[in-house]
């Protein structure tokens, strides 16, 4: 896909207890009032697709200098699995090829439906079903492969935020197909959670977006909204925006999911949407958001899959992925491991961890402490996000007049802070003392260069800045 996309997750199961009505020039299945389903559990573990483009790249390019970074920071984490090729004869089997191993592993897949007619208004990600009747039949086949275990469905990114190419009849057909899709998916799998496109915070106003969502059936056949798919708006902006849209919809059963796959450094200065340079990964996929209205932070758009400028839309670019990983703004907590071929390896992905969780909140700057070798290299410790019960920290090692070949930093907390996740380093905690070492690929810091790693931690009480030592 290209420009601006969206997503969200949680809500009600849709049980079709009545008949089927034919409406609006397309077949529109209207479910009778839905029975409330449980929220997406905060401990939900998402499914990592072993056949994703990044997984195939890492398997085939182990000698590439970018391999370690891409493998550790991106490929190890669950991402959206897109159904964007119109193959009606195999779609049920294609879906089962994901849902069956995910169910066997006890993990929840994130499936992205991207098949509507007039997709992307003929832009770089054009394509989709030939017409709405064909789309409805394709959705029937898609739903038939869902099984009955929990799944998250991101329904048609861009479909409601990008409608400028549609006339009134085409828009009515789109709304009918989207509403029908939510109903059909819920009828096939009551444990499915369907999130409708809500654009992002710099596109449409919350009231305008809510009007479009309502017309497309989100309040009758959806579980919530999704924002920021394949865009770069900051998580804090998207949380405020998503809550505003939910407020306009006025349905307390609806939740939101936010795509954090490329928003770690926010948007480019000119808000370019097509593969802008200098962007970074955002919060790692997790359902532990700490916010009852935000169901999850997800990597809906797989990092490294291009918008259509760095490579063909949807094609994996190792260089794009590498830059996103190096510029990661907040690796965040992940969900306890990665699934490959139905097997699960527990623990964290990038570094040491103990217990705890992560949510979202404000930001605060920490202090700087010099230390280490040669006097020309320093380490700076900063708190970049603190929400009262936990925080995200960042350490930057900079050399000026010296260099490092392998590094270790350590500090001692003065309170009860406990690491829950680290990225771009290997960290351990013994009591109140934390020791972080380079990950191999980032061990060299040249004169004039720098390396940054990050971590999440939990705490209660105060959170003063510790003294950091560089060795």
Report what the structure shows.
- This protein has 471 residues and is of the alpha/beta class.
- It has two domains: 21-346, 1, 4-beta cellobiohydrolase (TIM Barrel, Alpha-Beta Barrel); 368-470, Immunoglobulin-like, CATH 2.60.40.
- The protein is 22% helix and 23% strand.
- The protein has helices at 53-60, 67-75, 91-105, 132-144, 168-188, 206-215, 218-221, 235-249, 318-326, and strands at 21-23, 26-28, 81-83, 110-113, 151-155, 192-197, 224-227, 255-259, 294-298, 337-340, 343-346, 368-370, 377-386, 390-399, 404-405, 408-412, 418-423, 426-430, 433-437, 444-445, 450-458, 468-470.
- A hairpin with a 6-residue loop joins strand 12 (368-370) and strand 13.
- Residues 370-471 form the CBM2 domain.
- InterPro entries: Beta_cellobiohydrolase (IPR016288), Beta_cellobiohydrolase_sf (IPR036434), CBD2 (IPR001919), CBM2/CBM3_carb-bd_dom_sf (IPR008965), CBM2_carb-bd_dom_sf (IPR012291), CBM2_CS (IPR018366), Glyco_hydro_6_CS (IPR001524).
- It comes from Streptomyces litchfieldiae.
- This is Glucanase.
Characteristics:
471 residues, alpha/beta, TIM Barrel, Immunoglobulin-like, 2 domains, seven-stranded parallel β-sheet, 9 helices, globular, disordered N terminus
Q: How are the strands of the biggest sheet laid out side by side?
A: 3-4-5-6-7-8-9
Low-confidence residue ranges: 1-38, 331-374
Q: Termini separation (Å)? A: 45 Å
- The top-level CATH class of the largest domain is Alpha Beta
Total count of strands: 22
């Amino acid at each position: 896909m290209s420009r601006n996309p969206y997503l969200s997750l949680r809500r009600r199961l849709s049980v079709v207890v009545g008949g089927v009505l034919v409406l609006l020039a397309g077949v529109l299945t209207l479910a009778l009032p839905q029975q409330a389903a449980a929220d997406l559990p905060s401990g939900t573990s998402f499914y990592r697709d072993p056949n994703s483009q990044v997984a195939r790249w890492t398997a085939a390019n182990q000698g590439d200098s970018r391999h370690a970074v891409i493998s550790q920071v991106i490929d190890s984490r669950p991402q959206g699995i897109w159904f964007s090729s119109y193959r009606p004869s195999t779609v049920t089997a294609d879906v089962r090829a994901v849902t069956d191993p995910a169910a066997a592993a006890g993990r929840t897949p994130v499936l992205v439906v991207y098949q509507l007619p007039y997709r992307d208004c003929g832009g770089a990600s054009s394509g989709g079903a030939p017409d709405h009747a064909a789309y409805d039949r394709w959705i029937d086949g898609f739903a038939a492969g869902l099984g009955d275990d929990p799944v998250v469905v991101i329904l048609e990114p861009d479909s409601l935020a990008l409608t400028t190419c549609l006339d009134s009849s085409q828009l009515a057909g789109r709304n009918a197909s989207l509403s029908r899709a939510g109903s059909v998916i819920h009828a096939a799998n009551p444990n499915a959670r369907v999130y409708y496109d809500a654009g992002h915070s710099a596109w449409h106003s919350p009231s305008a977006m809510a009007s479009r969502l309502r017309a497309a059936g989100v309040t009758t056949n959806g579980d919530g909204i999704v924002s920021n798919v394949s865009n770069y708006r900051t998580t804090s902006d998207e949380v405020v925006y998503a809550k505003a849209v939910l407020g306009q919809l006025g349905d307390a059963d609806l939740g939101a999911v936010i795509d954090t796959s490329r928003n770690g450094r926010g948007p480019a200065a000119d808000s370019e949407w097509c593969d802008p340079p200098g962007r970074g990964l955002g919060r790692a996929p997790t359902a532990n958001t700490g916010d009852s209205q935000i169901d999850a932070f997800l990597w809906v758009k797989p990092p490294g899959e291009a918008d259509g400028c760095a490579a063909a839309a949807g094609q994996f670019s190792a260089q794009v992925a590498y830059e996103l990983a190096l510029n990661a703004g907040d690796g965040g907590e992940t969900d306890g491991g990665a699934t490959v071929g139905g097997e699960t390896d527990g623990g964290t992905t990038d570094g040491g961890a103990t217990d705890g969780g992560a949510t979202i909140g404000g930001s605060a700057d920490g202090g700087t402490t010099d230390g280490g070798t040669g006097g020309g290299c320093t380490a700076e410790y900063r708190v970049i996000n603190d929400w009262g019960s936990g925080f995200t920290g960042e350490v930057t090692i900079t050399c000026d007049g010296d260099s490092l070949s392998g590094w270790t930093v350590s500090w001692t907390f003065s309170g009860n802070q406990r690491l829950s996740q680290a990225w771009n380093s290997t960290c351990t905690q013994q009591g109140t003392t934390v020791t972080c070492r380079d990950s191999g690929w980032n061990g060299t810091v040249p004169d004039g260069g720098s390396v940054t790693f990050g971590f999440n931690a939990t705490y209660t009480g105060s959170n003063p800045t510790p003294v950091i030592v560089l060795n």
